[in-house]
Amino acid sequence: MNYYKVRFECDPCSEDITDLLAAFLADVGYESFEPDSVGLTAYVQAQEYSDEAIREIFDEFPIPTSISYKSEFVESKNWNEEWEKHYFQPIVIAGECVVHSSFHKNVPEAKYDILIDPKMAFGTGHHATTSQMMRYVLDLKDIDGKTVIDMGTGTGILAILCKMRGAGNVTGIEIDPGAFENAVENAALNSQAIDFVCGDASSLKDCQSADIFLANINRNVITSDIDKYAEKVKSGGVLLLSGFYTADIPIVMAAAEPLGFKLDKTSEEGDHWAAIRLIKR
């Protein structure tokens, strides 16, 4: 699968600017983002790339800033090899869960051992949003036999951990076909039976109501689709959310509270990345 790697430089630059830019790019097909202090690097499948779409984002950008960009065509490659060389090292979450890939040696022992070959689908536990969501899953006291929906499942890592912890029916929904295929592969690597669906939030209509609902996406997608999430969370059920900054929590809660959710817990990690636990009344 071929991609474009697009580098965006922002002047001035802030977390709000890169977060909003990532949200707008996600709306036009971009799949993964690497923000930093001066801008953002983003990846999009080659067939989805459009200079016109980028210019429209610049024209409508609501925060004053000057944005420039450079695009680079990236041919299909062995993403496992790239992760091994540059990014992905085994990680232990909360002393209970180790995440590693098939190429790793001398992997630490942990109660839950998750094997992930990430390819282009991001979600190895290293990002602050994923690691916080994993900690929330590990904190769940009553998960045996529970129904789980993982919205935007990516590599499938959260769905796999839920299943390992004893959840009953687990459904992972992923809009990107490449990530969907990777999630299916990763579930098989871990011998976990998970129902994966390639689609967006409209796919929820065919899902069972969930005791536990997870969404690690971004603020704009969450606030846009949270009414659909609410329809599938049982009364007394848990909604775990991440993919946004601590400053965004009031915005997310403004969308969640009218739908019957109350804030139960918040956490922050890394560069102000937040995760929250909500309870459905």
Describe the structure.
31% of the residues lie in helices and 33% in strands. The chain is of the alpha/beta class. It has a seven-stranded mixed sheet with strand order 10-9-8-11-12-14-13, with helices on both faces. Helix 7 packs parallel to helix 8 (249-256). The N and C termini lie far apart (44 Å). 42% of the residues are buried.
Q: Tell me the radius of gyration.
A: 18 Å
Main sheet strand line-up: 10-9-8-11-12-14-13
Give the proportion of residues in helices.
25-40%
Low-confidence stretches: none
- Main β-sheet: number of strands, strand sense, barrel status? 7 strands, mixed
Order of SSEs, N→C?
A: EHEEHEHEEEHEHEHEEHEHEE
Number of strands: 14
Average residue pLDDT: 90
Structural class: alpha/beta
> What fraction of residues sit in β-strands?
25-35%
Outline: globular
**Tally of helical runs:** 8
How far apart the termini lie comes to: 44 Å
Topology (elements, then pairings):
Blueprint: E1 3-11, H1 15-27, E2 30-35, E3 39-45, H2 51-60, E4 66-74, H3 79-87, E5 91-93, E6 97-100, E7 112-115, H4 128-139, E8 148-151, H5 157-164, E9 170-174, H6 177-189, E10 195-198, E11 210-216, H7 219-232, E12 233-245, H8 249-256, E13 261-269, E14 273-280
Parallel strand pairs: 6-7, 8-9, 8-11, 9-10, 11-12
Antiparallel strand pairs: 1-3, 1-4, 2-3, 5-6, 12-14, 13-14
Helix pairs in contact: 7-8
In short:
With 281 residues, the chain is an alpha/beta fold.
Keyword list:
281 residues, alpha/beta, four-stranded antiparallel sheet, 14 strands
